[in-house]
Amino acid sequence: MVMTGDQNAGQSHKVRINNSSFERVEEFIYLGRTLTDQNSIQEEIKSRLKSGNACYHSVQDLLSYSLLSKNLKIKIYRTIILPVVLYGSETWSLTLRKERRLRVFENRTLRRIFGPKRDKVTGKWRKLHNEELNDLYSSPNIVRVIKSRIMRWAEHVARMGERRVILVVKPEGKWRPRHRWEDNIKMDFLKVGCGGMNCIEMAQVKERWRSHVNEIMKLRVP
């Protein structure tokens, strides 16, 4: 796989090892994750949501079963469905559009768990609004869970030292990924007044890092 901003580059590129020839591909699955030549996480999230939907449909009868408590249904969601969707999410680079797709998936599952609500004015049953779901679901929403995982992984990587390329990689030339994993971390720290601080240096003091991360977790997620 050739990673470049030029769509036509490397189309005829092949690798030969001994008598074997390996063709160029635009994407492939490695350790359960979808890697693309454009370094885009979009296909990976799409694949994770597809797997999550399959898992959701396998247990949707349990989620709407009236004899099960709401707390038990939430546990089913958090222990069976959510881990499938969030596999490898520590390395995702999120945008608002991707966050909304993830929230849409979660809200649909929560509507199945909490069921409809009778309107006080019309007397008719209706779906719960997003704000109502937020009030009923006391656990961190899916985007907050991902951000927490990203920060925990970033702290781990930062303590490995500057020789690790994940936090200090600087792409050369005109092409670079539109939105990098590191950009998410910097933007979140900027929101809590820590813009311009060196993440690697900050992570060396656990208390300081986790204090800032706790502030980030309190930020409103759309």
Largest sheet geometry: 2 strands, antiparallel
> Using only CA atoms, what is the Rg?
21 Å
Number of strands: 6
Low-confidence stretches: 165-169, 171-175
* Averaged pLDDT: 79
What is the terminal separation in angstroms?
35 Å
Report helical residue fraction.
40-55%
So what's the oligomer here?
single chain
Strand content: 5-15%
What does this structure look like?
- This protein has 222 residues and is mainly alpha-helical.
- It folds into three domains: 1-38, no CATH class; 42-139, no CATH class; 148-217, no CATH class.
- It has helices at residues 42-63, 70-85, 96-114, 130-136, 142-158, 181-191, 199-202, 206-217, and strands spanning 15-17, 20-22, 27-30, 33-36, 117-118, 125-126.
- Strands 1-2 form a two-stranded antiparallel sheet. It has a two-stranded antiparallel ribbon with strand order 3-4. A two-stranded antiparallel ribbon has the order 5-6.
- A hairpin with a 6-residue loop joins strand 5 and strand 6.
- Helix 1 runs antiparallel to helix 2 (70-85) and helix 2 (70-85) packs antiparallel against helix 3 (96-114).
- It starts with 14 loop residues before the first strand and ends in a 5-residue tail after the last helix.
- The relative contact order is 0.10.
- The model is unreliable at 165-169 and 171-175 (pLDDT under 50).
List keywords for this structure.
two-stranded antiparallel ribbon; 8% strand; 222 residues; 49% helix; mainly alpha; globular
